[in-house]
């Protein structure tokens, strides 16, 4: 279960956000409401929770929510996806609260380009966040790079070399087109092309089964390296049929698919006094909306929300 705790973010990544009015505090779910949804989800077999945003560390007292969620019977792991701009000062607190691991969004290792992609001069803060997460044991720290043709695809090999030199775990992600993003219509760099470029530079990759996580990435190792390479081919390597993820948006909508605009309102039920069993029924109804696969190839592109509002 992916839980967006806020739609606010301190960066403005070009593929993620566009102009929109952030929700008010009253509009978004309170921590106690998120806890109730997770308790209901756990009764249906949900065992892993990932906190997302916006930027989850934009919300105050996030460690308190982590403590609440790790105490739910049946929840085996709470993790987080973050841009890491605020992580260096909070990594130890989150680890102590029970956070298991983090995924960190990082699309360039060059300060000027990082600022162009994200709208903020925060690369050093992100790198410090990566090191802090590793130091306190939020492992494996996974680095998510969205590959954008003509913007950062010339850094594919630079990231791969960090796997060898520094033991990074890098996941290359195909750009997912959202109608209202600034990169809608950009040329796709497929995972097949990315893998071929890496093998041309570093040699053949060895398939690898990770010890943590069971998501959509296909993992490999560079022989002799301490890190791993993952490829998420959301567009060209459709994994929908085996997907067991669903999302809770910050404003209380259950979204069965990142790439589909179908949603189920659970906030109204929460604020009307719904029982755990009634919340579980709503979660089941959302699960039934899952399609066999997305239809990006046929030009069906999510338009109702930006990535920032969904919680990727």
Describe this structure in words.
This protein is of the alpha/beta class. It has one domain (2-310): Aldolase class I (TIM Barrel, Alpha-Beta Barrel), CATH 3.20.20. The protein is 30% helix and 16% strand. It has a twelve-stranded mixed beta sheet with strand order 7-8-9-6-5-4-3-2-1-10-11-12. Helix 1 (31-43) packs across helix 9 (276-287), helix 2 packs parallel to helix 3 (91-97) and helix 6 (156-166) crosses helix 7 (191-202).
What is the structure about, briefly put?
By secondary structure, the chain is α/β, with parallel strands linked by helices.
Topology at a glance:
Layout: E1 2-4, H1 31-43, E2 48-52, H2 62-70, E3 77-82, H3 91-97, E4 102-105, H4 111-118, H5 123-136, E5 142-147, H6 156-166, E6 169-174, H7 191-202, E7 206-208, E8 218-221, E9 228-232, E10 247-248, E11 253-255, E12 264-265, H8 267-270, H9 276-287, H10 307-310
Parallel strand pairs: 1-2, 1-10, 2-3, 3-4, 4-5, 5-6, 6-9
Antiparallel strand pairs: 7-8, 8-9, 10-11, 11-12
Helix pairs in contact: 1-9, 2-3, 6-7
